[in-house]
TetR family transcriptional regulator
Amino acid sequence: MTTNGRRKFRREGEGRRRRDLIEATLDCVAENGIEGATVRAIALRAGVSAGLIRHYFPGKADLLQAAYAAVVKRMTDQAKDALAAREARPAERLAAFVRANLGPPVVDARIFSLWAGFIARAHADTALAAVHREGYLGFRDEVESLVGAVLEEAGRPADTAMLRRHAIAINAIIDGLWIEGCMASSLFGEGELAGIAIASVAAQLGVDLPGRAGSGH
Amino acid sequence: MTTNGRRKFRREGEGRRRRDLIEATLDCVAENGIEGATVRAIALRAGVSAGLIRHYFPGKADLLQAAYAAVVKRMTDQAKDALAAREARPAERLAAFVRANLGPPVVDARIFSLWAGFIARAHADTALAAVHREGYLGFRDEVESLVGAVLEEAGRPADTAMLRRHAIAINAIIDGLWIEGCMASSLFGEGELAGIAIASVAAQLGVDLPGRAGSGH
DNA sequence: CGGCTTGTTATGCAAGCGTATAAATACGGG
DNA sequence: CCCGTATTTATACGCTTGCATAACAAGCCG
């Protein structure tokens, strides 16, 4: 029988298929670690056959790299969105930035699993290392610029060396809290991480930041 | 006369063999990621045949777990050593603790590579996750106890909730700086990370800590 | 409506994986 | 001195992996 009129597969545009494969890759990595992201598992989740992957990507490594780039982009975009709705005061911008990086969309076990998997691999894979370095430095520059604006507003302009030290420390706070939140999200209440981070950054810079939890208002 | 006098292998005690196999595993993980730690590669580096692994470990998973436990122990031991030579003042102890975790033996690309490799897998491997959780909570408890002593000395005893928040933040600072230092050690001068961390912790707690860089001595 | 392009599947292959099993060897105790 | 036993090696098996290739079919264009 000709299995009635049902088609066996549908053709899709290149953009759609690439996006689906990347998303399926992220799902697989998040679920079973980077070693669980085999071409067969990815294809199964994407609803296509395994061979199709090599029709859109030269090899599995390229798919993984594209997937990691997508994660980096998603995270930095999230942070930039928080800045797009630019509040009037620099202090508010900095607080919003910190909050965006420690909130639900970024603090996510799935993203962390990807990050850890790729970070571990970046030591032996120069291409992945480049992707990482790019997103990382962009993030730190953003922090440095925000801190500079905040200190200037407070009438305490900082020299470049001090600005750098502040950016490094604040970046570390955000990174560290992000990791803790991703690995043990159940241990922290909603917004608790962001509150801790903002309080810590405020103390670090010696300024008052809006949105501090328990500010005794 | 056994052909010629040369022995084909030597018998070693169980302790020695297990230690060698664990060390070989760490070498493999650090060099090529956790996926590069195959039983054959590990055995080759340890100078034994592949089959011997299963004579000392029920399976490869057990070897990996033992190897990760060794890494965690090594890191926490390093920090505890800094506390063993207990200085008089709590502030000095806290500073020494921070400095120990951001100095040469702990800030190391190889250890980071190991950490990242295992962390990535811990999401899908409950045994590894348990090993991690154990070492992690021990570290945080240490920080909390140190912070409590420092605040008490300063005449500003903190309630448990505040203590917890401080411990979380300081832990994050150390973690974040540790990662930055491991991944891009060339970007930081000697002792710079420790200096940034101590300054940040001092600001966070509102106390003066010894060993601050640029303290105008 | 029939051929053409090309997205898509199906199948196969060589390599590498972890593991199981039996043979070989070192080395201490009778 | 030689035997017994635990350690170590050697070999093989079944499975999965990433990748290559050929058959297939969906949708467009004349």
